[in-house]
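INTERNAL AUDIT FORM
Audit reference: QA-55
Scope: verify that the stored structure record matches its stored sequence.
Auditor: D.O.
Record contents follow.
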Amino acid sequence: MSMHKPLAALVLALSLGCGAAFAQSTGLGKPVSEADIALWDISIGPDGKGLPAGSGTSTQGAAIYAQKCEVCHGKGGFGGPNAALTSASGRTDRTMANYVPHATTIFDFTRRAMPWPQPKTLTNDETYALTAYILSLNKIIGENDAMNKQTLPKVRMPNRDGFVSKYPEKH
């Protein structure tokens, strides 16, 4: 049994060394810098950890929405070719705003994936403003409420207690 440990160590050492040598000799891959990682390490938790500086209001978000979002999501957040962000008056369609348990999820997704097809091009202020606009459209916050890293995590989403996470240990 003790002979297997040195053999396993040798195999591991050779595989690590060969992998590095292969990458260098073939020109495939490149070292990843901390700056490269930081560009993608932008996840925002339910508690707001990781939220950047900045702020925005629904009024500011409405102007940005008309310019960058309306073509896909429709005027007023519904009726476009892509997912509705709010329901038409009198309807209760499932939208991101009435489905996700935390307002920080809307910020995180918007900053990471929008606008299509130029994801990650919104400034922090634009993302806060668009999040405020979506929350205001859904009557979750008032039209004049500013969203920032202090106020956004405190927003109580309608489905906060009704959401069952696939990964409960991460909440």
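Auditor finding: record pair retrieved intact. Strands lie at 55-56, 147-148.
Action required: none
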